[in-house]
Design goal:
There is one protein chain. With 411 residues, the protein is of the alpha/beta class. It folds into 2 domains: 89-310, 3-Layer(aba) Sandwich (Rossmann fold); 314-408, ANL, C-terminal domain (GMP Synthetase, Chain A, domain 3, 2-Layer Sandwich). Helices cover 30% and strands 25% of the residues. The protein has helices spanning 5-15, 18-21, 23-28, 40-43, 51-56, 90-106, 126-137, 149-158, 168-181, 201-211, 324-333, 364-382, and strands spanning 70-75, 85-89, 114-117, 140-143, 163-166, 191-194, 214-221, 226-232, 239-241, 246-251, 265-271, 282-288, 290-291, 303-304, 309-310, 315-317, 320-322, 341-348, 351-359, 387-391, 406-408. The strands form 5 sheets. It has a 9-stranded mixed beta sheet with strand order 4-3-5-6-7-8-9-14-13. A 4-stranded antiparallel beta sheet has the order 10-11-12-15, with no helix packed on it. Strands 20-19-18-21 form a 4-stranded mixed beta sheet. α12 links the parallel β19 (351-359) and β20 (387-391). α6 packs across α7, α9 packs parallel to α10 (201-211) and α11 packs across α12. Belongs to the phenylacetyl-CoA ligase family. Monomer. It is an enzyme of class 6 (ligase). Pathway: Aromatic compound metabolism; phenylacetate degradation. Its EC number is 6.2.1.30.
């Protein structure tokens, strides 16, 4: 992707004082004269930042402004190690709200909407980000947070919520509960802003169909503000990234070389205006591609495609490398398979055994044919044959946050 002159100027402006403000970058770029960065090619020679780098300076080693300028911190969950703590200045909080309000506007949300916010609050960036953007736009925020489905649905009905904000897992759980109770006609939902985890087309179609809403994918991560740095538009041909706040690259995960637009690789992000914890060439581990050309919606903001997965999501069975997105593709094209699935990987008597559980409304011979079809498609696309087992609709677990789908008990 071509860096604009404005983006280069913003980066060079940051670099003039970055080492003085940030002990983290003073050490990271100790052997680099940042004043020598004059072109995109120069910039692409800089070392990457990794999540482990951020963990190593826990708790506040990323801070690049004096204490009195910090108004808030957010943090990653720390479920896979030491958490990453991100400090925010007032400008950072305002800039985040500006970006999130743009997301709502791109999704067609207006100040007349009532926005039902179910993602969690607290150290996680989700709930409060959805609320900030909503208030910036001028719509009514209904800050529910996750859980207590009975109360969610009562408030949704009584307050006339028109926009649902949720993880895809919780949106599906709510959609199924609304269908089971037969209350869809009592609701006023018209839009869904969904994020925080990747999800397949069948799941998207189920949520959209059962709730009767238009769905938009929102993107973000704790290290780079949080959700709200990009969203899909009415064309649903990728997610627009707010490139006046974030510069995007896609690299080959193995070599680190920047890839041409259109090629799938690892997304790398650089903040252009962040004060509290600026990030330079941060490897997200998210796999996507930059969508070439301008979107038919007319927005000049660049697009990344729906995420394929993460570099650390890959699992290997019987010599075959595979990602959850590939499993979802198999589910998508298998007639009779619903959206929900689990992959179980075990080592039995020294051999890897791969089982794909999937929900289906079919029974008897029809279910057996569906299982056979799924196993055949899986073999053709991913290179190994699973034990495909159809289970009744609703049998696999639902989650209020992110649904775990790959279970590997070999290690």
């Amino acid at each position: 992707m071509q860096m604009t002159d404005v983006q280069l100027d913003m980066i060079r402006s940051q670099f003039r004082t970055l080492k003085e403000r940030s002990p983290f970058y003073a050490q990271k770029f100790a052997d680099v004269d940042l004043s020598d960065v004059r072109t995109q090619q120069d910039f692409e020679q800089l070392p990457f930042s990794e999540k482990d780098d951020l963990r190593a300076v826990y708790p506040l080693g990323l801070q690049a402004v004096p204490d009195e300028k910090i108004v808030r911190i957010h943090s990653s969950s720390g479920t896979t190690g030491t958490p990453v703590v991100i400090p925010y200045t007032q400008k950072d909080v305002t800039d985040w709200a500006i970006q999130f309000a743009r997301c709502y506007e791109m999704a067609g949300v207006t100040p007349l909407d009532r926005v039902h916010i179910t993602p969690g609050y607290g150290l996680w960036t989700a709930g409060i980000g959805f609320q900030l953007g909503c208030e910036r736009l001028g719509a009514m925020a209904i800050p529910m947070g996750p859980g207590n489905t009975d109360k969610q649905l009562k408030m949704m009905e009584d307050l006339g919520s028109t926009v649902l904000c949720a993880t895809s897992s919780y949106a599906l759980l709510l959609a199924e509960e609304i269908a089971a109770r037969g209350i869809r006609d009592q609701l006023k939902l018209r839009k869904g802003v969904i994020g925080s985890e990747r999800w397949g087309d069948k799941m998207r179609a189920r949520i959209s169909g059962e709730l009767g809403i238009d769905i938009y994918d929102i993107y973000g991560l704790t290290e780079i503000y949080g959700p709200g740095i990009g969203i899909s538009c009415d064309e649903h041909a990728g997610m627009h990234i707010w490139d006046d706040f974030v510069y995007i690259e896609v690299i080959d995960p193995a070599t680190g070389k920047t890839l041409p637009d259109g090629e799938v690789g690892e997304l790398v992000l650089t903040t252009l205006q962040k004060e509290g914890a600026p990030l330079i060439r941060y490897r997200t581990h998210d796999l996507t591609r930059i969508v070439p050309g301008q979107c038919a919606c007319g927005s000049h903001h660049p697009r990344i495609d729906t995420l394929v997965g993460r570099t650390d999501d890959m699992f290997k069975v019987k010599g075959c490398n595979m990602f959850p997105a590939q499993v979802e593709e198999v589910i998508k094209i298998t007639d009779g398979a619903s959206s929900e699935y689990q992959v179980m990987i075990e080592n039995i008597s020294g051999k890897d055994v791969l089982t794909v559980l999937f929900e289906t409304p079919l029974e008897g011979d029809a279910k057996a044919r569906c299982e056979e079809e799924l196993a055949t498609i899986f073999k053709a696309k991913l290179g190994c044959t699973p034990d495909a087992k159809g289970v009744p609709m609703g049998e696999l677990p639902r989650s209020e946050k992110k649904t775990k789908r790959i279970f590997d008990s070999r290690y």
